[in-house]
Structures are given as structure tokens and as C-alpha cells.
Design a protein that fits this description.
It is a multi-pass membrane protein. Belongs to the DHHC palmitoyltransferase family. One of its GO terms (cellular component) is endoplasmic reticulum. The protein is about 65% helix and about 5% strand. It has about 375 residues and is mainly alpha-helical. The protein has three domains: about 70 residues, no CATH class; about 210 residues, no CATH class; about 50 residues, no CATH class. The strands form three sheets. It has a two-stranded antiparallel ribbon with strand order 1-2. Strands 3-4 form a two-stranded antiparallel sheet. Helix 1 packs across helix 2, helix 2 crosses helix 3 and helix 5 packs antiparallel against helix 7.
Length: about 375
């Protein structure tokens, strides 16, 4: 009887950690324990680790940890790429060893043995394309073409020279300190890919996210059907209700069915939960990057807009204070978070994205980058 409560507690703790890690910095969680958990996971734990290493082993060990951090976070390295391959390989190997024996089953066709291989192979191909393709490196040879392709908006992008590359930095480009190169339509540097995500490989990155979301969802659903098929073939519900007199209701059967599944198919349950959690995380990333593609915005530009809006707010507050205006008390965090728009000024700033040309054209620009179009090639030849 304690098993369901154990599962509920485990799921609640897992959900709290995931939400705190991903959303702990949202304004709605400001001053709450969710924000404190986020601070501990993203900064506090590592800071305490450094203090512990320094106290136990001295400066040399602390410098060693800082050197490892610098290698992992400030230089190109294949650590997360290897980690990704290990996760995919080990997970698929465990599924083959423990779950393929139930395929075909009552609800699952034998075709899924081969579909799973195809799904993993396509995911690996998208990983390779994203990791090893050119993200859109800006050089002295093609900088003039990128300058004409992306105009400056005069707000978050203004004409300036890259202090490292010594070339004029085109609008929407950024110099990546890890890769040490300017990247056109820079989105972010992805440690999992050991590569920047930019103009030429955003399509591969988005396809990678969507495909892996579908793979994890597919795996969790198939494992669920395997478990349901085992319950059906072994007549577990029938035995519980007829021979043991268990009430034929969800509340009556669930504890006993859960105990049987954990005793006989605990590996399948753990795999299904793991894949479902990963699918949930990837689903959020897919939704976010799909929104960026539809609005022709990048992660880098999103942060730039946030900084600009905060700066404008500060300027307006200083002007209001200088004019002696009395400001109304700000709305609660909850009302501000769920309201459609915060202020009229914010809406005006957000709508000033000159690169947003409609959803269809925005998506075309992602999947057929400007640098690969004939008009771009003609400008390059000129």
C-alpha cells in the first residue's frame, strides 16, 4: 500500500527539481523556495563544492577544479557530445535487452523492433549534422554579403567592429567566446553539440529537438503499451478481482497493479518514466525554439530585448522621479505574470522586430538560410 505514495513522492520531488532548475528565475517565483532551489542548483552547489575542496585539499585542488570548469565551459570540448552518445547508446541497449522480448505483444507489433532502429539512426544523423556543420561563420570574404542580408535595427543592433575578428559585425551576428569566431544570426553556443547554433544549422538543431522529443514520447508510449499488454495477457486484473476479491475500481486496483508491475516490470517502468521526463523537457525546448523560428528571433536577441526593455524601464522611472510623479503601487507578481501585456511601452518595443516578416517567410528563412540562396550567391560573386 505504501508503493503508490512512494511513487507520488518521487514524482513530486522530481517535478519540483525540474521546475526549479528550468523556471526558478521567472519573476513569478521571485522570493520563493523555488528560486532558492534554482540558485542552489545553478550556483550554490558548485560554490559549496569549491569551498569544500579548498578546505579539504588546499589551493592546488581548487585550482584543478577551476581548470576543469574552464575547459568544460570556456573552450570547445566533446564532453557533452560523448555524454549524449552514451545516454542514447546505453538507454537503447537496455531497452533492447529488457523489452524487446515483449515485442511483438498484445498491443505492440513486431514492426517496432525495426522502427526503433530507424528512429535512433535518424536522431544520430541530425546530431552529426548539427554538431559538425558550419553555423554560418562570418569572415572577411563574406561579411559584405551578411551586412546586406541583415540590416541594423538601430535598437539592439548597431554597426560596430568585432574587436577580435577586426571586421564589421553584421546585424544579428555575435562573436562566440568559446568557438572564437563571429556567427551569423547567432542563437547560442550549444555544449551538447560542441558547436554554435547560427544561420546555417538552426534548421538541424530544431529538427534534432523535435525528433528527439518524438523519439522519447514514442519510447514511453510503446513501453506503456507493453505493460498494458502484459496486464492483459497475464489477466492480472481478472485474478485480483475474482480470486482475491479486490474491488473492481481504480482506487481499489491501482495499488495492487502498481505493486505487481514494480515487482515484475520495474525496468520498463523506470525506462518509461525516464523517457517521459526527457520528452517533457524536450517538449518545452521545442516549443520555445519553434516560437523563435516563427517570430524570426534568436535566443541571443531575446536576451538583448530583455536588457533593452529593462534599461528603458529604468530610464522612464528616473524621468518620472525627476518630474516628481507619484507612481502607483506595482501589481502583484501573479497579475504581472499572467497579464497579456505589462505596459504600453513594452509592447511597442517588442513589436519593433524588423526581422519578423510573417510566419511562413520566417520559417523559410530558417530552413533555407539567406546565405544559401541564389540572390546571396550573386551578391557574393559581385
Amino acid at each position: 500500500m505504501d508503493v503508490p505514495w512512494l511513487l507520488v513522492a518521487h514524482g513530486s520531488v522530481t517535478a519540483l527539481v525540474v521546475v526549479s532548475f528550468l523556471c526558478g528565475q521567472w519573476p513569478i517565483f521571485e522570493g520563493t523556495f523555488v528560486q532558492r532551489i534554482n540558485h542552489f542548483l545553478t550556483f550554490g552547489a558548485y560554490h559549496h563544492l569549491l569551498r569544500l575542496v579548498h578546505a579539504a585539499c588546499g589551493n592546488g585542488a581548487r585550482d584543478l577544479v577551476l581548470g576543469v570548469e574552464s575547459y568544460c565551459c570556456d573552450r570547445p570540448n566533446p564532453i557533452l557530445q560523448i555524454f549524449y552518445v552514451a545516454i542514447i547508446g546505453v538507454t537503447y541497449f537496455i531497452i533492447v535487452q529488457t523489452s524487446f522480448q515483449y515485442i511483438p505483444g498484445y498491443y505492440v507489433s513486431g514492426l517496432h523492433r525495426y522502427l526503433s532502429i530507424v528512429a535512433v539512426a535518424i536522431g544520430a544523423l541530425l546530431f552529426v549534422l548539427t554538431s559538425f556543420s558550419d553555423p554560418g561563420t562570418v569572415t572577411a570574404e563574406n561579411v559584405s554579403q551578411y551586412l546586406s542580408a541583415y540590416p541594423y535595427d538601430g535598437i539592439i543592433f548597431e554597426e560596430k567592429e568585432c574587436s577580435t575578428c577586426k571586421i564589421t559585425r553584421p546585424a544579428r551576428a555575435k562573436h562566440c567566446r568559446i568557438c572564437d569566431k563571429c556567427v551569423a544570426r547567432f542563437d547560442h553556443h550549444c555544449g551538447w553539440m560542441n558547436n554554435c547554433i547560427g544561420e546555417k544549422n538552426t534548421r538541424y538543431f530544431v529538427a534534432f529537438l523535435v525528433w528527439h522529443f518524438l523519439i522519447c514520447l514514442y519510447g514511453a508510449v510503446i513501453l506503456g503499451f507493453i505493460l498494458a499488454g502484459e496486464l492483459k495477457e497475464r489477466k492480472v486484473v481478472y485474478i485480483l478481482t475474482v480470486y482475491y476479491g479486490i474491488d473492481n475500481s481504480f482506487s481499489g486496483l491501482f495499488p495492487h497493479v502498481a505493486q505487481w508491475l514494480l515487482a515484475v516490470h520495474n525496468t520498463q517502468i523506470l525506462l518509461a518514466v525516464f523517457l517521459a521526463i526527457i520528452a517533457l523537457l524536450l517538449g518545452g525546448f521545442c516549443a520555445y525554439h519553434t516560437h523563435l523560428c516563427l517570430t524570426n528571433t534568436t535566443t541571443n536577441e531575446t536576451f538583448k530585448w530583455q536588457d533593452y526593455i529593462m534599461w528603458r524601464k529604468k530610464v522612464n522611472e528616473e524621468k518620472a522621479a525627476a518630474n516628481g510623479e507619484v507612481r502607483k503601487s506595482p501589481p502583484s507578481k501573479w497579475k504581472a505574470f499572467f497579464s497579456r501585456s505589462h505596459t504600453e511601452a513594452d509592447e511597442t518595443i517588442v513589436k519593433n522586430n524588423i526581422y519578423d516578416r510573417g510566419m511562413i517567410r520566417n520559417m523559410c528563412e530558417v530552413f533555407v538560410p539567406l546565405s544559401e540562396r541564389q540572390s546571396f550567391s550573386r551578391k557574393k560573386s559581385d
